[in-house]
Design a protein that fits this description.
The complex is a heterodimer of chains A (327) and B (333).
Chain A lengths: L5 E11 L4 E12 L4 E5 L6 H9 L7 E9 L2 E2 L5 H7 L4 E4 L13 H12 L4 H14 L5 H4 L9 H13 L5 E5 L7 H18 L2 E5 L3 H7 L2 E6 L2 E7 H6 L4 H9 L38 H5 L21 H4 L1
Parallel strand pairs in A: 3-8, 3-9, 6-7, 7-8
Antiparallel strand pairs in A: 1-2, 1-4, 4-5, 9-10
Helix pairs in contact in A: 3-4, 4-6, 6-7
Chain B lengths: L2 E13 L4 H7 L5 E13 L3 E5 L6 H9 L6 E6 L2 E2 L6 H8 L2 E4 L13 H10 L8 H8 L16 H14 L4 E5 L7 H18 L2 E6 L2 H7 L2 E6 L2 E6 L1 H6 L4 H9 L38 H5 L5 E3 L2 E3 L4 H11 L3
Parallel strand pairs in B: 3-8, 3-9, 6-7, 7-8
Antiparallel strand pairs in B: 1-2, 1-4, 4-5, 9-10, 10-12, 11-12
Helix pairs in contact in B: 4-5, 4-6, 5-6, 6-7
The chains are: A alpha/beta (327), B alpha/beta (333).
Chain lengths: 327, 333
């Protein structure tokens, strides 16, 4: 019934270098429905942030979209002129970055930063904007919002600052929020507060959220569906419960197994041998085969087919067979 | 089992006042930040003692005082019965110093980019005039790298490999105690698993003792023989992992465990913890946790609770019985 808010098809991001063209994002496809949280996990260098930046049009040159398409509510946005994209950014797509300290301007009061965003994107007066800014701060759980609106970022703690950043991302009422490691810089108890806040906002406003993180625990708690990335490609895509509890791709299986949470009570943690290949020296065939316990000749010779957004869970020639499949 | 490290009433106060002229003109009082306040614990030989806590809880400050990078303001740290900050016999101090090594959080900042790996690893021995022939190569193989890597520079390695080099350097002087300050926080999960496994193996092989500092409860649960939970520079609970994770006694430990993400917590809707760590320059009177504690009563706001022994754990709380009852009500055994 509902069309996806964001629909990414065969997205390719390339970085031309002197020796070769690197592909940090390679044929990635996924959808995000309204009110859905899509978790994107992977290790550093897997291309998760790059995918988010491509969607919001913030790729640093020389990185550029080299293929595929991105649609926001049905409209293509990957080939928009700079000015149109600028109008869209902040209005339709909100962004929450990892470090709340560097994503706020230290010289401006947070009220000014909020009203500036709203005045740029919405047709409202300054007084209205200020009222809305207070309401937005109130909604993200900042106590005494009316008096704290004239504070500077340094007067807030890390958790409170991240709430301000979320208020900033929400104030123009976007239909999609890209949250890039929003809780990585925060303590456990504050992380729980921010995750609960994101989930509540997402549910109440039907905002779609793309949650980029490396923390499996956060994904398990917050996301509805998960996309696992490895060396720029989607390794697995599916509902969170299936991916976490019965992973199909050997990489996902290894990743889930290597978190200390999963190996509770065991003397040794399960580990994946080796490390992720550099983009400049990707192996032939499936990029995971040198580390894969089940790699066969086919994996070494043939690249795995890229995942479609709606069908197929794991990009693997020999996906892990799960018990329920046998039934 | 003998005690290797003994920490008694350890306290560290930092002077964070403005410069004296500003204080004079603006009529400001001195500002003192108590980073660690009256912390006592023992680490038996060949055990892993973990300190957990959120940022600002003083865990790294304790680590630095144990290795001797900071002097305590009060209290003492004894390693093998020798108090490094007060011992006057230089030979004894030197002997103990080479028994203590440290592994830092950021493997990118803790290796000198201009030194070859061989020199980095051999430095703890070379500095004492020891024999470094083939030492780096041997240690590199022990931590899972190749002996040929000794001729390379740090920038040629990934984060996990650099942390292995840091571990090799820590092992060079054949220490008894290694203080690990967030050794895997900067690493990806799959690499973290490799490094943690390596650390467990080396501990068994060399009979090492670890003081393991981390904010990650799951890592601590996996590694530690005993866990100390810190809040605002105070030790609020000390227990072995099984006890702490099945029956946390202090309300803060309970809150911390409930807030940690769980792999089977799909769509979990728990009320998140309230409030944040208070300002350590003006800590609340009485129990430091009282403004956020659901069980706080008058005595919690007046008197600081002492650590008391309870069922194999040490807990500093006035309301232990109530806290235990509250935990049983949430999670029936």
């Amino acid at each position: 019934m509902s069309d996806p808010v964001l629909s990414v098809r065969d997205l390719v991001v390339e970085i031309p270098t002197r020796n070769a063209v690197l592909r940090p994002v390679d044929h990635v496809s996924y959808d995000i429905e309204p009110g859905e949280i899509l978790g994107v996990v992977g290790e550093s260098g897997a291309g998760k942030s790059m995918t988010g930046n491509a969607v919001i049009g913030l790729l640093d040159r020389p990185a550029a979209i080299a293929g595929g398409e991105i649609r926001l509510k049905g409209q293509r946005i990957d080939n928009l002129p700079y000015e149109d994209m600028r109008r869209l950014r902040g209005k339709e797509i909100g962004m929450v970055f990892q470090d709340p300290l560097t994503s706020l301007n230290p010289l401006l009061q947070i009220g000014d930063q909020l009203t500036e965003t709203m005045l740029a994107h919405l047709e409202i007066t300054e007084t209205e904007a200020r009222t809305r800014a207070i309401a937005a701060l109130d909604e993200v759980g900042i106590p005494a919002a009316a008096s704290r609106i004239d504070s500077y970022p340094h007067e807030f703690s890390g958790g409170m600052r991240q709430r301000v950043v979320i208020a900033l991302a929400l104030c123009a009422e976007p239909s999609l929020i890209i949250a890039d490691e929003p809780t990585t810089a925060l303590d456990v108890s504050v992380q729980a507060q921010i995750i609960a806040l994101l989930k509540r906002l997402c549910r109440e406003r039907r905002t779609a959220v793309m949650l980029v993180t490396h923390d499996m625990g956060v994904i398990a708690e917050a996301a509805d569906r998960v996309a696992v990335m490895y060396a720029g490609r989607l390794a697995e895509l599916g509902p969170v419960r299936d991916v976490v509890q019965s992973p199909r791709h050997p990489y996902t299986e290894g990743l889930m197994g290597s978190t200390p949470l999963a190996s509770r009570g065991q003397h040794r943690l399960r580990q994946i041998p080796g490390s992720m290949p550099r983009l400049g020296s990707l192996p032939d065939g499936c990029a995971f085969h040198p580390r894969c316990p089940k790699a066969q000749d086919r994996c070494r010779a043939n690249p795995t087919p890229s995942l479609d957004a709606d069908q197929g869970r794991a990009a693997c020639w020999f996906p892990v067979e799960q018990l329920e499949d046998a039934q | 089992m003998s005690i290797l490290v003994s920490v008694r009433n350890l306290t560290r106060v930092f002077d964070v006042s403005k410069p004296w002229l500003n204080r004079l003109i603006e009529r400001l009082p001195k500002a003192l930040l108590t980073a660690v306040s009256d912390v006592s614990f023992d680490i038996p030989e060949q055990q892993v003692y973990a300190l957990v806590g959120e940022s600002g809880s003083g865990k790294s400050t304790i680590g630095k005082m144990v290795v001797g990078l900071l002097n305590p303001s009060d209290g003492l740290v004894e390693v093998e019965g020798i108090d490094l900050s007060r011992e006057t016999d230089i030979d004894k101090v030197e002997a103990v110093r080479s028994d203590i090594q440290m592994i830092f959080q950021d493997p990118f900042a803790s290796l000198n980019p201009r030194w070859k790996v061989r020199d980095i690893i051999a430095e703890p021995v070379a500095a004492k005039g020891g024999d470094t022939d083939g030492l780096a190569e041997r240690l590199l193989e022990q931590v899972g790298l190749s002996a040929l890597d000794a001729g390379k520079f740090p920038h040629e390695f990934s984060g996990g490999q650099r942390q292995r080099i840091c571990i090799a350097r820590a092992l060079a002087s054949e220490p008894k105690l290694i203080v690990c300050d967030e050794p895997t926080s900067a690493l990806d999960v799959s690499v973290q698993a490799q490094v943690l496994n390596l650390m467990s193996d080396l501990k068994d092989e060399f009979g090492l003792t670890y003081l393991f500092i981390s904010h990650d409860l799951t890592v601590v649960q996996h590694m530690a023989d005993k866990i100390g939970v810190l809040y605002l520079g105070r030790l609020v609970e000390e227990a072995d992992p099984d006890t702490l994770f099945t029956r946390p006694a202090h309300p803060y430990s309970q809150m911390l465990l409930a807030a940690a993400p769980k792999m089977d917590g799909f769509g979990r809707e728990v009320p998140p913890p309230q409030g944040e760590i208070p300002d350590p320059i003006n800590p609340p009177a009485g129990c430091a946790f009282n403004p956020r504690c659901p069980l706080a009563i008058d005595i919690c706001r007046k008197e600081r609770p002492e650590l008391q022994q309870i069922e194999g754990a040490r807990v500093a709380c006035h309301r232990i019985e109530e806290a235990l009852a509250a935990h049983r009500a949430v999670e029936p055994a």
